Amino acid sequence: MNYDLSDYQSVNNLLKKYGFTFSKALGQNFLIDDTVCPRMAQELFADEDCGVLEIGPGIGVLTKELCRCAGKVVAIELDRRLFPVLSETLGDFDNFKLVEGDAMELDLAELIKDDFSGFKSVKVCANLPYYITSPIIMRLLESELDIDEIVVMVQKEAAERLCATPGTRKSGAVTYAVNFYGSAEVLFEVGRESFMPSPNVDSAVIKITLDSSNSYDIEDKDAFFALIKAAFSQRRKTLVNSVSATLNIPKAEIISALESAELDKNVRAEKLTMEEFAKLTKLLQIN
What we know:
Helix content: 25-40%
Strand content: 15-25%
Distance between the termini: 60 Å
Number of helices: 12
Oligomer: single chain
Structural class: alpha/beta
Order of helices and strands: HEHEHEHEHEHEHHEEEHHHH
Strand order of the largest sheet: 4-3-2-5-6-9-7
């Protein structure tokens, strides 16, 4: 039986066939809008020489579009209950592979090496559950995988933070990570009605273009990110209080470093640029 994966009732019948029920714990909101997925796939500029790693294929609406344009698609799915569903919806594609596992735990570097050998480029595409958006993106960035682009759908608020300019009100720790490893842009917004079941918020699709050349004067990456994470750990507090409490550095030492960097001692993390965080990292000599 052919199912219309953009029709609520048709999808409902498909899920009932396999006794599937949505898991709140896994943040399952399946994308069923057939106008959104082609746009996401198009933004990857994928072709037969490109491999695509998808995280959380759901019922395969986006996966279908990826399989139509890429040489190979490997999808990571944690929920085994979706395997028979995906077997039916993606059975016609011989360039699709389903991998069971948690994207936060799998050896992604090894997976990419094994499954995309011979491809000119590898890209990541996903409709990410809201609760795990930042951890997944941070893992993709910090693992320094052999990928060149990430196109993901995330909660609209998260999209604004990911694509914010460092040193502005909407920036967060993940903003600085994105800017360290590349650049990000919001491509288009997606309404809550595009999902089943509908979430309480709207979403947006963003693209992160990776760049291996670090244009910032950052010698110790680990220390740099340790400082940023500490600074944003208590966002409403001043940088002095947040960093002191998290990294156990005396406040006087932090204030002295801020003064040397010509920064206000009452500054909050969101006000600092990449360059200012880099300078502060050196002054504090974080191990």
